[in-house]
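Entry type: protein chain
Record version: 2
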Amino acid sequence: MLGDHDRDIIYKLIEKAKPTPTKLMGEDVLNIADTAIYTELNILEQKLKSTDSRYEPVSREEYKERGGK
């Protein structure tokens, strides 16, 4: 099982690996290949977060108590 430190490293690597959009007529766009890579990295990140205790869902009441709106 991955520890918090290991997960943090993986999250940072995923974020660095995500392609950055380019500007085309003032709009941010990704080409097809970059979109596929971005999607796969997001899926991987969500799978990691689903097993990470730091990202457990909380009730709306608890969220508001923590300062959420």
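Comment: Residues 4 and 54 are 9 Å apart (CA to CA).
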